[in-house]
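ok so for the tutorial part 2 we go from a plain amino acid sequence to predicted structure tokens. step 1 is just haveing the sequence, like this:
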Amino acid sequence: MRTTTTSEPGTAGLASPRIARWLFHGWAGALLFLPLRLYFGIEWIKAGWEKVTDPAWMSTGKAVAGFAAGSIERGTAGDHPAVAYGWWVGFLEFLRDATWFTPLLAKAVAVGEVTIGVLLIAGAFTGIAAALGATLNFAFMFSGSAGVNPAFLLAEVLLIAGWRVAGYLGADAWILPRLHSMARRIRVDRFRRHGDRAIPHHA
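step 2 — the prediction. this is what the tokens look like for a chain of 203 residues:
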């Protein structure tokens, strides 16, 4: 496989596979990530919309408490439990019993799933949206619920890896360059204000 030398800071002289540059730094990657973004964005909106229109998620929070109770009951039985970590069982027990907290979390999950879907479809802050989605998928899998979560997680890992181009056929084409320019201006202004202090003066 042909390689090319990266120009990333701190990686001088390291060879990067050409396919990685092609996939994560060019238009080809943007085209390949587009259907991935759209499909999983729609799926996130569908999953979230079911929750947003359900009082058990948006009012009482009983959906979260019930999910936690069910995960504990089904996932901790036998010699090889689906919920394998004691600290996560403790967290699920907290969700089952903390009636003051579960309504807030239920609303956050429901609205968050819709938001993730919208951001993925729009191609806005694609890497961040994928990371938030992966966090939810990890939580479901830690709770013993596989289902579609592994497929979602795989897609989100690819979108996170390709965050530079994954949303380029979308709002990130406008957002990311402006964020980069803003960060550069901040660094320049900071250097102008504090640069003299950082340079030692010799007699």
